[in-house]
Each structure stands twice: as C-alpha cells, then as structure tokens.
Design brief:
5 domains, about 900 residues, 36 strands, NAD(P)-bd_dom_sf, Thiol Ester Dehydrase, Chain A, Rossmann fold, phosphopantetheine
C-alpha cells in the first residue's frame, strides 16, 4: 500500500505464472486474461483493506479493457480515491517498469454491513429449469467463440435451463491453498459467469462489460450452486443482462451479482496488447501422480541397446510382473514373432568428463533404429536412459544419455507410426517397481522421468526469473569460439555494449573480409579490445595452446562456445562421416573447453545450443543430438558446482545459421511455430539471458498459435502449460476419422483430406492451390515434407502408411487410390480377426467356450480388458482370448461406463 496525497491509497502487486499460475488458465483467444471475477476480487479486497471493514460491496463496475497477463509477469495497481464521500476505484496494469499504464476497470466500493443474505427456493427453481445442457458442448462452444478455458476454469458440473433462467452446479477442480484469503474465489465466481454465458447458443464471443452491484455474504466456499435470471436480451444480440446468485446446497446466499451486462467482443491481439518483447523458455520437470492405467499382462518383451549388468535384473523384474517372455532381440527374425514391447535400454557408463565413448554410443543407437525400421514391425518401443535430464538437485547428468534422449525424440518425429515411450531413470534394475510399471503401462506422456520412486513429466514454460548477475561486470578476458562467424561477431558487439573490455575471438580461419574488419572496428569503438587467434576447437592440443596463450595476457573470466555447423539429415541418411562432421566443433569443442576451464573460476561458461535439442524438428536428428549433449554438459558442470549455462537458440535469419535457408525450408520452420529470429530479436534475448542463472534456456520466437494449428487436436503433453488442451467434444469434432460412407464418397473424402494436408504443409493459402493430378513435388514437397504428409494422413485415416508414400504416389489422385486400397485391406483383416475373437479358452478348465454376446467395437487396450471382464461376469478363472489379451483380474467396470 502507498498512501496518496489527500485521501486515498494505491495497492500494487505483481502477477506471474509462478505466483498465480491458475489465473493463466483463463484465456481469451490465445492470451491469458484476468477474468472479470478476478478484477472484482482485487477491487473488493482493496476496499476492505482501505475501509477496514469486512463487508464490502462493489458498485458500478465497468471493465474498460482486457487485463492481459503477460507470461513474463504483470504489474497491477488498484487506486482508491475519496470523492464526495464516495470511494472511487481504478485498476491499472503494465508489463514492465518502462511500459505505459493501461486502465482496465473503474468501480466504487461501500461498507455494506447491514445487508441480510437472501435465501432461494432451489426446488422450485430446479423444477422450472427442466432442460439439461451437455457440459462438453458448452466448453466446445466457448472455445469456438474464443474462450478456450484451461483446466482450472472448467468446473461447470451440471447445468439446467429454460429460456430465461439457468441453474448450475459449480466446483473448483483445484482446491486453493488458503480460501480464507478471498471473499469469493475468482474461479468460483467465474464459473457462475460461465453459467450465465451458456444461455447464449451462438458462437459469438461474449464477455462481461459492466455490473451494477456485487455483494459477498459468506466466505470459504470451493463449490456452490448458481442461479441466473436473465432480465433482458438485446434485440441485436449484442448484449444481455442478468442477475446471478451463488448459494450453498440449502439455498443460503454466498454472493450476488446484480445488473450484469455482457457485450460482444473480439479477442485481444497479442501484438498490440503485449508488445513485441520476446520470451525466454525453459523445460521444467513437474512431479506427477502415479500412473493410473492397466498393466500389460502376458506381454512378450524383446530387449536391445547397450549390454549392461542390469539387463538380467530388469528381465527378471519384468517376468515377475507378468510378462510371459523377455529375450534379446534378433532383428533378422523379429518379424516371425514380433514382440509386444521392444525395450531399448541405454544404461551408459557414468560420464568420464572426456566424452570418451559418446560417438560409439550414438552411432549404435542410429544403427539399431535403422534395423528396427527396416524390420517393418510396429511394436511399442520403450527407450530407456539413465540420468539424461536434471530433474532433482542431486542428479548428476550424463551428457551422452542426454544426446540419446534427443535421438529418441527425433525417432518419434520421423517414425510416428511406431509408438514410442521415453523413460529416464536413476536406477535401471529389476527392483525398480516404478520402472517396471512404466514400461508395461499405456498413457499419453511421451517422456517420463523417475527419481527415487517419484514420477516427473516435462513441460515447456516461460522463464520467470529476475536479474541475478551482469556479464558486463566481468573484468577479465572473454573467450568466444566461432568468433568470426556472424553469430560470434554479434555476440562480441553486444558484450562490448554491456561493458566487457577484453575479447578474444577464436576461429579456424582468421582471414578478415572488409565486412568483418568493419564489425571488429565497431566493437572496439564500444570500448573493448579485440584479439584474434586461429585454432581448431575440436583439437585438444590446439585448444590447450590457445588457453595457455590467453592466460599469459590475463585472467579468462568467461567463455562463450558458439562454434558449430548445421546438418539436415533424416535418421536413415546418417553416416559415420556426416555424424563426425556435425559433432566435431560443437561437441568435441565443448568437451575440451569444459575440461580445460574447470580450475579457472569463471564468471560464466555459456554454450550455444539449439532449440532443435528440445523440439527436435524432422531432419535434424544428429544436429539435435549434438546440441542436447551441450545441454547435458551444462547440467553435469552445475552438479559439480561449476558455472554453466546453455542457450538453445531458435533459428537466426539475416546473418545467422539459417541465412541460407530457401523459402520452403523457412516455411517449414514457420509452419511448426518456430519463427526465424532477427538480429534485433536475438540481441534482446541475449541481453535478457545473460542476467539469469538458470542452467538451460530456450531463446526462440515460438508462435504458440502456429504450434496449436500445426498439432490441431493432438497437442503433445509437452506443450500443455502453454496451450490448454481442448475438451473431449472438441477433439471428437475435429477428428478426421473417415466415416463409413459409400466407396465413391470415401474416395472423395480421402482426396479432399490429401489436398488440405498438402496445402497446410506447403504453407499454401488455399486448398484449391493443389492440383489433384499434379505431382506434389512440383509444388515444392521435399522428403521431409513427404514424411510429414505421410504422418498426418496416417493419423487421420487410422492406418500405417509407407515412408515412401509421396515418392511412390506423387499426385493426390494416385495417393488417394493407394490409401483407399489400404483401407479395404485393413478392413478385411479386421473382419477375419472378428470371427476368431469369439472363442475363449479357460486356463482353469482347458475347455473352449463360445461367448454369444461378443460385439466388435474399436476399444483401447485398457477398455478391452474392462469390456470383456464385464461380459465374463464374476468367474474368477483366467481367460486367454485368441488374437486378444490375457485378463488377470476383475477391474473397475464403472470406469468404462463413466
């Protein structure tokens, strides 16, 4: 609180995802926006504090502009002034100290201690509201209109209504830490507003605009009933007005909202409302609950990877938990008896500080992937690493394992028809029950980390960290590898602007062009002396000599490793020579810099990584693995108490490492939501990053809207903190599964789907730009895009399509013919299986039984167990179903019915 001259006060607070993460689930369009209910509570609490009275009513509230919650945080002020015995309030916000304040709301507050809480006759109200609404459909309508509520704000339980009334049951899905801090929790009040909004069946975005009076009668409620009485519909559908009452189960009032008016609105624009400040991202490992899924009983498991003393114990643990057989894989014979699960175990030795065997390990992984793909099997693959990521403070990360995890991500992207689950553990043994459970279960998480029996999942987040240090305060010599590259010279320039006075640029080639001479002159004009040294950082002897030479001139206080080369290859294209080329300067150089600098007491040690290490776009497997090694090396150094940080850069344009991209390649990156950084963007991100002590930072311009459009209804869990998931109804509405229609109609459906997906992948404005009889290669479809098209089509039609789909069937018409034939073949196989599914063998009696009630339905593995167990009744015998699964226990049938 800050007292104002005269009578009044200002209350200021800062809201960030770290302090008020639940508020960021309230979204309008693509942005997090403070709900009107939240502004009401801000005003009410400020009035309560200022007047020193607990019974405060808010009057004449007008919401002037959306209070957008920036991912980097939002400063909020609530100002109270006395005017002729009235207490007028204004709410203001801004993102940074230098930004202009925006007025978001105005209102008045009064002391209302004499108000008597009303009581409603709920039975009579319920009798009048006889039409029940579908909750999923309501949230789907909200999302279509521009209100894609996150999980916290999806607490509508049941809604009944008539033409002018709504009666709803509300429940906060996440219990707040301390309800007593609120008069009425903004989530609960917003749910009542949602019940109000549900009465409008149009898909037009409607938002609260003004409220005559808000009164809170009782506190400490996390669930309530809401009664909405609509008093007026606007003839032009632009506004409606209503009274809203929240009560307990007995009808006693909790809060009332009188004279609430909503208006048609448009989603706020991210560019105009939040400015052009680029965000820094980081990957967080969040603790999750124990996995809730059925165990794959009777599974056949084949193992491959690196030989390890722990494999025998792991095999025994799998058998003890119900696997029928665990054996080493033989890729030449694997198609004769394909396993249910292929376990690739990478229990690498502890990192020796020199990366002695990393090349052999990664090339072995690539070779096994090639064998797996060549075999043609589509068994579930479990990719098992040990300490590849830093999840808890005590983790001593192995950078080799980090690179292996990145290879798994690339494998998942390039061969999505093979189901892949990545598990990182601290203990690979048969005694690790959590590991055995994770291997044998089914869930939606692509990556899981297990630590000391707890389960963690990765989520991409916007970094929330205040300034901690200043690079410009470093008064020693700063060494930059790759120093004469465009990136290295830019970094040197920015360091000089930040106050660094001595810079050494190391490069294999120190011949200076006029352009480079000019840039070095600019650096020196900013007050820094610049020295050049020619050396190959991938050569330990050469780099050792460089370090000794620099130390004769003074103390090395900081190192920035910016050397490296890009490599765009699919996994099956990787060779030993191409692998060595991309690893040499980037990985070998980082290993040697780490080794030679451990006793230097550096102020900072920064490795330039790439966003590819985390997002793993197709066609960059080894480049991603090289950068992931650097990320792991940073975690390893930090576990030793050494300074280290990696900057996972997005692609640079103009002078950066993607300046040579053609239009098609740039469009592919943009299609995936990865925008190309300008030099100005990169400068902004670098200046922000060097003030942080966080280990691994992602410095990229991510277009969240494009990411959402790219993944559509299949947004990976990795993105869930930035992109709220849709409802089940939304997913069903968007699903592209082909309906059972006439053959000619099905062909047209497939052809339309092919043209639409091709246009999307090629970044064409209209589907009509695709000629169904023209080769897609003529439109610019390359091998990576062909892979992406095959994945998208396979997911939509529900069958596995060959990797050479676009090559063998280059026109949309030819592709449609092929897919139609494949569908017919798959359906024939399904009908054959349906006949054999009817027969069961009792393992207790050995007798075969025919079950007449069996119906062929498309169920998941877990649902199959539940369905068949329900049909078999209470018989405790074990049943083995031909072409099916083994059922070993009576499971909760109610889950399936729910």
């Amino acid at each position: 609180r800050i007292s104002l001259a005269g009578e009044g006060a200002v209350y200021e607070s800062r809201i960030t995802p770290a302090t008020h993460g639940w508020l960021y689930d309230h979204r309008v369009g693509d942005l997090a926006v403070m709900p009107g209910a939240g502004i009401i509570e801000l005003i009410r609490v400020a009035g309560e504090e200022y007047l020193g009275q607990p019974n405060i009513s808010v009057l004449a509230l007008v919401l002037q502009s959306p209070l957008i919650l920036a991912e980097a945080g939002q400063n909020i002020q609530v100002m109270i002034r006395n005017n002729d015995e009235q207490h007028e309030i204004t709410v203001w916000s801004r993102t940074t100290r230098n930004a202009e304040w925006t007025m978001n709301a105005t209102a008045e507050v009064i002391n209302d201690s004499l108000v008597t809480p009303p009581r409603l006759d709920l039975t009579t109200i319920k009798a009048r509201c006889s039409t029940q609404k579908d909750i999923d459909e309501i949230y789907q309508k909200f999302a279509v209109s521009g209100l894609p509520y996150g999980p916290v704000f999806r607490g509508l339980q049941i809604i009944w209504s008539n033409e002018n009334e709504v009666f709803a049951s509300l429940k906060m899905l996440e219990e707040p830490d301390d309800l007593t801090r609120f008069g009425i929790h903004p989530v609960l009040l917003d749910l009542a507003f949602q019940a109000y909004l549900s009465i409008d069946d149009s898909d037009v975005l409607q938002l609260p605009f003004s409220i005559e009076r808000i009164v809170v009668y009782r506190r400490n409620y996390s669930e309530a009933l809401a009664y909405v009485k609509v008093s007026r519909f606007g003839n032009d559908h632009q506004s409606i007005e209503a009274d809203v009452m929240l009560t307990d189960r007995s009808g006693n009032a909790i809060a009332s909202v009188h004279g609430m008016c909503i208006r048609q609105a448009t989603p706020p624009d991210s560019q105009t409302d939040t400015g052009s400040v680029k965000k820094i991202y980081t990957l967080r490992w969040k603790e999750a609950g124990e996995v809730e899924c059925g165990i794959w009983q009777g599974a056949v498991v084949a193992m491959a990877g690196l030989s390890s003393h722990n494999n025998d114990g792991l095999s025994a643990g799998l058998v003890n938990c119900g696997c029928s057989r665990v054996s080493l894989v033989d890729f030449e014979k694997i198609t004769d008896d394909p396993p249910d699960i292929l376990l690739l175990s990478w229990d690498t030795d502890e990192y020796d500080g020199r990366g002695s065997n990393y090349k052999d390990v990664l090339l072995t992984a690539v070779d096994i992937i090639k064998q797996l793909v060549a075999s043609g099997i589509t068994s579930k693959v479990v990719w098992l690493t040990r300490k590849a990521v830093r999840v808890i403070a005590d983790d001593q990360v192995n950078p080799v394992a980090t690179a292996l995890l990145s290879v798994a991500r690339a494998f998942s992207k390039e061969f999505s028809v093979i189901p892949l689950s990545v598990i990182d553990v601290d203990d690979i043994s048969g005694n690790n029950l959590a590991l055995i459970t994770e291997i044998l279960c089914h869930h939606s998480e692509a990556e899981v980390a297990l630590r000391e029996g707890s389960r963690f999942i990765p989520r991409l987040n916007v970094l929330q960290q205040d300034v901690q240090q200043a690079v410009g305060a470093s008064r020693g010599i700063i060494l930059i590898t790759g120093g004469l590259g465009a990136i290295g010279l830019n970094i040197a320039h920015w360091l000089a602007e930040l106050g660094v006075t001595r810079i050494v640029l190391v490069s294999r080639n120190t011949i200076l062009t006029k352009e480079k001479q000019s840039k070095i002159a600019d650096i020196e004009r900013n007050g820094a002396s610049v020295s050049l040294i020619s050396a190959d950082v991938a050569d330990l002897a050469s780099l050792t000599q460089v370090m000794e030479q620099i130390q004769q001139e003074g103390r090395i206080s900081g190192i920035i490793h910016a050397a490296g080369s890009r490599n765009a290859q699919l996994l099956h294209e990787v060779t030993s020579s191409s692998f060595s080329e991309v690893m040499a300067a980037k990985v070998d150089g980082a290993i040697y810099l780490d080794l030679l600098s451990r006793n230097l007491n550096l102020d900072f040690f920064i490795l330039f990584s790439s966003v590819a290490s985390t997002l793993s776009p197709e066609g960059q497997a080894m480049y991603a693995a090289a950068n992931a090694f650097l990320d792991g090396l940073v975690d390893y150094r930090q576990s030793l108490g050494l300074t280290a940080c990696s900057y996972a850069w997005g692609p640079w344009g103009e002078e950066g490492m993607v300046s040579g991209l053609d239009a098609t390649q740039a469009a592919r990156l943009k299609n995936h939501g990865i925008e190309v950084l300008t030099t100005a963007d990169a400068s902004q991100l670098f200046r922000a990053a060097v003030t942080c002590t966080e280990g691994n930072l992602i410095l990229a311009d991510l277009n969240i809207r494009a990411v959402k459009n790219y993944f559509r209804e299949d947004i990976p869990a990795f993105w869930c903190d930035l992109i709220p998931a849709g409802t089940a109804a939304e997913k069903l509405a968007k699903a592209g599964v082909l309906a059972p229609v006439l053959e000619v109609d099905r062909y047209n459906q497939i052809l339309t789907l092919i043209c639409a997906e091709s246009a999307r992948i090629l970044s064409l404005a209209k589907t009509s730009d695709i000629d169904k009889n023209q080769s897609l290669r003529d439109k610019g479809l390359d091998s990576l895009m062909g892979l992406e098209l095959r994945k998208a089509l396979g997911k939509k039609v529900g069958i596995t399509l060959p990797a050479t789909l676009a090559l063998d069937h280059p026109t949309p018409c030819a592709m449609a013919d092929f897919i139609l034939n494949q569908l017919a073949s798959e359906e024939h196989k399904s009908s054959s299986v349906a006949e054999t599914v009817m027969t069961f063998t009792s393992e207790s009696t050995g007798k075969q039984m025919l079950h007449k009630d069996v119906v062929l339905v498309p169920l998941s593995l877990g649902q199959e167990r539940l369905w068949f167990m329900d049909k078999l009744g209470e018989n405790k015998s074990l049943y083995n179903m031909h072409y099916g699964i083994r059922i070993s226990s009576k499971l909760d049938i109610q889950r399936l019915h729910d």
